[in-house]
Amino acid sequence: MTVLKTSMRNFLAHKGRMALSAVAVLLSVAFVCGTLVFTDTMNTTFDKLFAATASDVTVSAKDSSDTGETTADNGKPPVMPASVVDEVVKADGVKSAEGTVFSTSVTVVDADKDSLSPTNGGPTIVGNWNGNDARTMEITSGSAPKGADQVMVDADTADKHGLKLGDEIGIITAVGTHRAKVSGIADFNVTNPGAALFYLDTKTAQQTLVGETGVYTNVNVTAAAGVSDAQLKKNVATALDGGYKVQTAKEVADANAADVQEFMGVIKYAMLGFAGIAFLVGVFLIINTFSMLVAQRTREIGLMRAIGSSRKQVNRSVLIEALLLGLVGSVLGVGAGVGLAVGLMKLMGAMGMNLSTDDLTVVWTTPVIGLVLGVVVTVLAAYLPARRAGKVSPMAALRDAGAPADAKAGVVRAVLGVLLTGAGGFGLYLAAAADKASEGALWLGAGVVLSLIGFVVIGPLLAGAVVRVLGAIVLRMFGPVGRMAERNALRNPRRTGATGAALMIGLALVACLSVVGSSMVASATEELDKSVGTDFIVQSDSGQLITPQAVEAVKAADGVDRVTEYKWTKADFTTPDGKTSKDTAITAADPTYAQDLRVETVAGNLADAYRPDSMSVHEEYAKDHGISLGSKIAVAFEGGSTAQLTVRAITSSDAVIDQGAMYTSIDTLANYVPADKMPLDTLLFASAKDGQETAAYTALKAALDDYPQYSVRDQTDYKEALKDQIGQLLNMIYGLLALAIIVAILGVVNTLALSVVERTREIGLMRAIGLSRRQLRRMIRLESVVIALFGALLGLGLGMGWGATAQQLLALEGLNVLEIPWPTIGAVFVGSAFVGLFAALIPAFRAGRMNVLNAIATE
After folding, report:
1. What gap in Å lies between CA 647 and CA 604, rounded to an integer?
2. pTM above 0.90, yes or no
3. pLDDT tens by residue, 434-446
4. What is the β-pairing status of strands 57-60 and 245-248?
5. I need a labelling partner for 206 at 20 to 30 A (CA). Which of 130, 243, 446, 773 fits?
6. How far apart are CA 22 and CA 823, in angstroms?
7. How far apart are CA 339 and CA 37, in angstroms?
8. Where is this chain's protein located in or outside the cell (predicted)?
9. Residues 475, 485: contact at Cβ < 8 Å?
């Protein structure tokens, strides 16, 4: 009980000093709990939606997906004849059955030809209005579609785009463009996370999406009273004799949920990874806080030992303080995490994904995980300072001594740090020298972890040398004040090393990702310049296939000399060694593709692969299956027949663009795949007539004005788009890493604040002999700046080493250019100085307000 009282007294006596450490725990726990609450809420939202929209039993075409629809390569959904409905109705236990048709391979535009499709990645769904939809949605304005010129839209999409009754929209599909006017607006009874839904009458939907009537993509089946979904599924499957896919409502909902959870899992674990980094940075803050508190209470601890307290009791006292800190920070963090989740939901709402706070999900495991993590990490971080406190001898009460220094421990630390750093460097070397990316990735991971730990351990040893260099460059110009700031930073290398290490971790990741991102852009740019021989590339940024109507519009554009179509499909390959490769990708293109993309060949001529019944393979595939020029491969095309194709070219496997592609001509593909099964184009390549590049560029954009889902880019545009995509990804990662950097800044603030308290008498004496308040504040600010620059220098150097090694692995995949983004690195380094200045504001202000006499009299 005495130990608990002592711990409580010390905790409350230093509550101001504990606050910043508590904030670090709070932020880390909040990020973990916020991530869990946010992802659980999204899963709840989707689960409710899928459960509400699924019929008792759903029948779909055999080659459809488990979620109900898979748009084929021809841009149309797989269908079944309307007669299936009659067969289903005859099955035992069926109350009713209704045929439906829908597709997600569509683009919807308004009267101004602006896309109405979601920008948040949600699907655009066009289908027929049916009884199942009427059960889950309510028409709030107008009426359901009753003719070919009418369409109904969901309320969220109408609100987002300002659609009202009578507005005209266009529905673009592989069949063509269908125009209709809004006849009604319907609202979901549950939350619609962000899909755009448009409803036509049944006949119009069939004609618009499939190009023929009398077919359905699904049949929604309702069970009679007392019949379970499982029994109904069995009865329907028996009636259909296994010719179609039959699923219960739960199976459809589970399949949809699995798709969402796969996507959500990536987000969840990525965000938890950044929370882990924040926790790691927070550990340094907590260690520093308790180390300094122990040092400041040396005399007090010595007196406790002198009056009978054991080492174990002193140790326990410090750990109880850490436990209290962890509990307070974690409890506040759990609450802040719920608030963070709500904030993320609002942010997603602004981006077009609707999430309702009515679905806010806080399962019991979330606060438990937050509390356990926060408390355990805090107590573990405080263990070493507590152990040092237990070593304070009773004689320390008789002198002004700090915590006992362990010279042997310092030597062990230095040796261990050198060994770990050396092992990490060797791991990075092995990664850079690897022949296969998969092997190198393992060595890269080991090298990153070991070098990071090594730098953390060896930080105090590095602090002495690095701070002296930084002091000579940055501080000496400030005269005596600068020299005092340097000596203060060098006074306790362990503290400076730990404080700098917290900032080092976040900046090392920033530098590594910057190098990798810049190298990827530079490599891709170089490859484009070297390999691409076309002027323009036409494609959909959302991955949609290019409709025949859009292809014709591109070919008809003025100033265009040639257009190369590029299709992608799957086939089963049976090679001369007798092996069969299932679902192997094969690219079909026009013969002019050999001019549009300069692919390196190791045997033969790529242009010959576009001759009738010919193809190419890449080098690795040829070696694996004993293929040479003239070899024949049996190619069973998906949706078509089997062809015996002759290998006319073997391409290099080291290409960046179209790496591993195997080519044949579109004419060859058309000979073995029926016209209604022919895949649509994935890309189009267009070349301008000589001297008409600008006119052709303008004409192509005008030609695709009716198709906003497609973009026309010249090589400059394409490079810029690639740079923007990687830049957006890096900015998102930098935003998440900002949490770790904020915690590191709190560490600098805490270190300086406690350091000021520790040096109270010294500061009073300096003021007494003539140091002005302004000089005192400057000294503390400069000390903070040099600590921040020390952490930045280590972090940026370490991160660039990681990034350069990662680039060597990417070089195995054809990304051969290493580019160091010096402007970014320089800006981060300079920004670190401003971080140091910011972190020193409060400690410097408090130091400047000290009463000189009281400071001198301080024990």
Report:
1. 9
2. no
3. 887 778 888 888 8
4. antiparallel
5. 243
6. 35
7. 10
8. Cell membrane
9. yes
